[in-house]
Amino acid sequence: MQALRIAVFLFFAILCNAAAAQPLNGIAMHGDPALPADFKHFPYVNPDVKKGGRISYGVVGTFDNLNPFILKSMRTTARGMWDPEYGNLVYESLMQRSSDEPFTLYGLLAQTVEWDDNRSFIQFNLNPKARWSDGQPVTPEDVIFTFQLLRDKGRPNLSSPLKAVAKMEKVGERSVLIHFNEAANRETPLIIAMLPILPKHVIDVDSFERTTLALPVGSGPYKIKSIDPGQRIIYQRDPDYWGKDIPTKVGIDNYDEISVTYFLQETTLFESFKKGDIDVYPDGSPSHWQQAYNFPAVSSGAVVKETFTPKTPSGMLGFVFNARRPIFADKNVRKGLALAFDFEWFNRNLASSAYTRTESYWQNSDLSSFGVPADANELAMLGPIKDRIDADVLDGTYKLPVSDGSGRDRKILRKAVNFLKQGGYAIKGERMVDSAGRQLSFEIMTQNADQERIAIAYRRSLELLGIAVTIRTVDDSQYQLRTGNYDYDMILKAYPSSLSPGTEQLGRWGSAAAKAAGSFNYAGVADPDVDTLMNHFLTAHSAEDFRDAVRSFDRILISGYYVVPLYHIAQQWVARRSHIAHPDVLPLYGYQLPVWWDASAQ
């Protein structure tokens, strides 16, 4: 009888999985995709735009590599090859993310997908039209080859999700079936769907980990026209691009030519924009946005200033403590140093009061814990970890202190001193010293003049406490090398937030990433409780559990004082040449450069 019950159970389980595994044009992390199976284009594009013309982007830095998928030179790879801002011009993924939904993917190289309710597998059914730029078809063998290659030789954010793959197999002529192991979570299939696919027939496995300037073969809408190493890369539209008419590509990739020019300094880049050599200038500085646009092109209308308001969380910008350093290992020291930053003085004197103080990694969204007491569901989810959360963070009353704006608010500085005292420091002879008489001192490494300006304001407050701070502004190549090796005391970094946080958080805060060279765990956090809370939102089934899991994760990050929280701006500021146009509809995640176009070509 028992054997019969098991057989019946397995029979119905197979039936249920078979029913669930129907071909789908889109998949979502939570809920269902917003667009119907027969949608024609994304709602935030202009489907009638005439392709043509050109655009010139500018960036600060350099490049010596065209392979964006390896650890070596990962931060000096040419922009545009595989690029979240300018678009994936050369390489493509199996599915395309919508910028108007929290986390939903639609078909790209894969025409449809199939999966089960438990997300224990996913099957990608390739579009029969998909081609590489040399005319060869994109095949299941390419997919399997790519995932094996990236698993073994890709940089951490590409190799990590592939460790959750138990088995890959070709199904029929155009499909790949992927089974997951116990390391997978509910987000894993979607992450796999967004990984790049590479051509097996042209990739040399043995030399894959070396930097290269050899022209690549991709499946994307552009080919490389010319390269001036370290200076400029120019992309040219592929007239034979296979995907120009599929729904996820209509109204996108609208230029015949895209150039990316590199500059040593932001000021030089802006001067090039003023002269008309660069077409788009995203601006993140309120003082610069208010004061720097009094040149003739603005007055004549040749340059247009625009403000966009996305519906996304604030993210976190802050000074990041490298907790690998002994001086920052104690939370009380980090908390004392965080309290010492006088935001009100900085905002009024150096930022024209344009900023809002950031007090949560998901501020301005339902995922934020700021001002929200933990409910019964969240407390149950936290379990004993709740005892490690600061009481005011747990009950929703947490708020960073507001100074009198003098730059030397004694009340706040006294609180900072008290926490530093708990961390083993005391003021003696106008110096903050440890029990051995060593002064508390560290270096802030910055990338540019704007970061240096903020660091100087911070140092001003810390010097009042007898803390010695040096500021070192380095060039881009040195900055990338030192951050990749965690060779710094403190840096200034931004942690963007989405409405569907997932596996990327493992790279920022996970224990494994803390030990991996080149990861984004700049703070060096290696905490089993942090790992546990990340797993909660990665495995959440319901929207309510997901929200509460992210809130609990937000609370432990806030309570850990891994960064000195700075500020955010609710708007996106962009200046553009008037011949560069964009759709009227703004998607959830804000403006999207790949859907803009050259109006002079219309």
Protein described:
- By secondary structure, the protein is α+β, with helices and mostly antiparallel strands.
- 29% of the residues lie in helices and 20% in strands.
- The chain contains 18 helices and 27 strands.
- Strands 21-20-22-16-23 form a 5-stranded mixed sheet. The chain has a 4-stranded mixed sheet with strand order 2-13-12-11. A 4-stranded antiparallel sheet has the order 6-7-9-8.
- Strand 20, helix 13 and strand 21 form a beta-alpha-beta unit.
- The N terminus is likely disordered.
List keywords for this structure.
alpha+beta; five-stranded mixed beta sheet; four-stranded mixed beta sheet; 20% strand; globular
- Discrete helix count: 18
Helix content: 25-40%
Spans where pLDDT lies below 50 across 5 or more residues: 1-20
The N- and C-terminal alpha carbons lie at a distance of 74 Å
- Side by side, the strands of the main sheet go 21-20-22-16-23
Largest sheet: 5 strands, mixed
Measured on Cα atoms, how large is the radius of gyration? 25 Å
User: How many runs of DSSP E, i.e. beta strands?
Assistant: 27
Mean pLDDT: 94
Strand proportion, as a percent range, falls in 15-25%
Mass-distribution shape: globular
The secondary-structure class comes to alpha+beta
Write a brief structural summary.
The protein is α+β, with helices and mostly antiparallel strands and 602 residues long.
Q: What is the secondary structure topology, with strand pairs?
A:
Blueprint: H1 2-20, E1 26-28, E2 54-60, E3 92-93, E4 95-97, E5 104-107, E6 110-115, E7 121-126, H2 140-153, H3 156-162, E8 165-171, E9 175-180, H4 188-193, E10 196-197, E11 222-228, E12 232-237, E13 257-263, H5 266-275, E14 280-283, H6 286-291, H7 296-300, E15 303-308, E16 316-321, H8 331-339, H9 343-350, E17 356-357, H10 376-382, H11 391-394, H12 410-422, E18 426-428, E19 431-433, E20 441-446, H13 449-463, E21 468-473, H14 476-484, E22 490-495, H15 504-509, H16 511-515, H17 528-538, H18 543-560, E23 563-565, E24 567-568, E25 572-577, E26 580-581, E27 597-598
Parallel strand pairs: 2-13, 20-21, 20-22
Antiparallel strand pairs: 1-5, 3-10, 4-5, 6-7, 7-9, 8-9, 11-12, 12-13, 14-25, 15-25, 16-22, 16-23, 17-24, 18-19, 26-27
Helix pairs in contact: 2-3, 8-12, 10-18, 17-18
